[in-house]
Amino acid sequence: MSAVASSYYDCDEIVEFNQIRHGQLNSRIYVTDSTIKTPNTFHDALVQVALAQGYGKIIAKVKGSQLVSFLKKGYKIEATVPGYFGSEDAVFISYFLDKNREQSEFSQQYDEIVAEALKANPWHSGKFNEPVQFRSCNLTDIRALSKLYGHVYTNYSSPVSNEEFIKTSMNHGVQYYCADYMGVIVGCLRVELDADTSNARIYDLGVMTQFQNQGIASALLNKVKQFLKQQDIKYVYTLCLATSLPVNKIFSQQKYEFGGRLTNNNRIEDEFKSLNLWFKKLAE
Questions:
Q1: Spatial distance between the Cα atoms of 106 and 103, rounded to a whole number of angstroms
Q2: Which of 5, 28, 93, 176 could connect to 137 by a Cys-Cys bridge, CB 3.0–4.6 Å?
Q3: Residue ending a domain, choose from 38, 73, 101
């Protein structure tokens, strides 16, 4: 196996013919390929990389048919999206090199937040009547997106407010959608399409402070659902902070289902945070 470069933020590389994303900030490896060609030798290679870089966690989204091979190696199931791969589930599994990351002392609090979020009444468009346009973004919006993300995410696990990062991600197919209030972007999110399926991940949802609690995030999420349906996207999923009741409620109100929790997955504000997974089926 060739040497793997060290990076502060997550970077993409190929290990044993499979793509991974890894970085020092989150101290983890994320396997971005869903079909692992040689699970046993691939795991051994991942552990070598993790030990060399001092990482504490390996996480992968694998097909249900490959699950047993990883469980035998000591992986733990953290979340599931039923039917994500057609007849197979997508299973998020983790291998913890740092045993302190395997459990969270706040697990009960996180469970209570999910339970409360699930009680929320479904959102409907009649609740929103602000003069906001919801649209897709392009390269001319980079500066405005950078400004918004810099305002919302001041200490984050990826450089979302960096203009070059936004430009590069757009050029690599990441879709940005925004809430445009009289020419000013006041809310946005990103969508990453899954190359192996007709599915997508929604992430980095943010709204300017002075526009929060007005329903903009929910309305934007609802509009993006329509945009993705037009692209024949079948499933969407998201990861959000397990500590945030308002954000978890937003996805529950949009009829997303709770799929599990990635424990101590991202380093945010100088400590590892757990993320809840929510998913929604858009089409049969």
A1: 9
A2: 176
A3: 101
